[in-house]
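Internal ticket #5521
Category: modeling
Description: The requester needs a full-assembly model to guide mutagenesis choices. All entity lines are attached below as received. Residue total reported by intake: 425.
Assigned to: D.W.
Attached entities:
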Amino acid sequence: MAVRIVLGAQWGDEGKAKIVDYLTTDSDVVVRYQGGANAGHTIKAGDLEFVFHLIPAGIVHQDKACVVGNGVVLDPAALFQEVDELESKGISVDGRLFVSDRAHLVLPYHKAVEEANEKKIGDSAIGTTLRGIGPTYQDKINRSTGIRVGDLLDAELLPEKIRANVREKNEILKQVYGVEGLEEVQLIEEYMALGERLTPYITDTSVYLNDAIEAGKSILFEGSQGTLLDIDHGSYPYVTSSNTTAGGACTGAGIGPMRVNEVVGVVKAYTTRVGNGPFPTELNDEMGQRIRDIGHEYGATTGRPRRCGWLDVVMLGLARRINGLSSMAVTRVDILDELEEIKICTHYERNGQRVDHFPGDLNVLAECKPVYETLPGWQTPTPHIRSYGDLPENARRYLERVSELSRIPISIVSVGPDREETIVV
Ligand code: IMO
Ligand code: MG
């Protein structure tokens, strides 16, 4: 029995889903606890490829249960799109997908307000995924305007809440942003129908999960986004609107911290970022383009090209500290296979001073210059390798140096997208 959290240690897109998929084999329940359809979790199983935005990636294992916890912001139409796609591939979710009654609902007006706001602020736009994430969490924190999954069950209250919100949001859309509002009657009908379809999945998932833990089941928490996108500890304001860090699993699923046995940070062997904001080790040169090309670094949710750079130990230090990482799973090592040299950012320098801790102030971060250690590449293919000792010596040297500098032990090395392309250390 184990309760494990798998989460991103960087800016998202670390390959979390591949690690979750791998670890699902010895888990009973897989749980999403924060974020929403902004996530793009890709897994490859044989000839099939799946991209999940809301349903936990563990769902492809047909004997496992999956939970969408209270901390998630749920777009029911996006959820059913995934359910339908799974069903078209012969995978049924019935009886094993559970959605929290306390999760907040994403409505079309959230997306409309987000899009209008991103356009309005222009150069300082966050570069969001436009999935309505921020405005939905705003309504949750605001309390009076939030609508929860459980509200879908109340045929009297739901239309009232939607009507009041549409009127208010339309006012904002027109007055503040000068754009058209939404039509309320159609929206109410749509959400009543979605509510009916969602009803069999709705439950108190905190009770479900705690019962499962007490019954000795193994639970896997699937983080979305990454540590540096955390609303409190990330590169604010260029972050997402939820706690992507380990504590988010407790609040976002309704379990106590003493239940958690292990926190695995997923670390890409280099760094990527989508959206705006400073990125100290970014490579705005041929090398950055080369990594993007080899790694096909384009967003799974929005298709945007990802910004690429070297691995940053200062960031990993933040991830280790905030999440209390027990180990890390290093992914996409194979993408570096052909490089002549590989760099690791060991610390930053600012005004001649050494900086070891990721600064909270973005203006300070923007003045930080990365200091690198250069290691020789291995220039040998690795995807066929299945044991750590068989990795090229320089690959092991790189991994061991990253582990030593970050003070995080390595538990898994991934050398390709397939389930089998995994090395347990
Ligand atoms: P997964 O789970 C990478 C980024 C967006 C933007 C910022 C805020 O696949 O790793 P949001 O729509 O969340 O309000 O956007 O966060 N972002 C991600 N970047 N991977 C993700 O998810 C992301 N989800 C959001 O690009 O910079
Ligand atoms: Mg992704």
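Resolution: model delivered.
Comment from assignee: The first strand starts at residue 3 and ends at 8.
Ticket closed.
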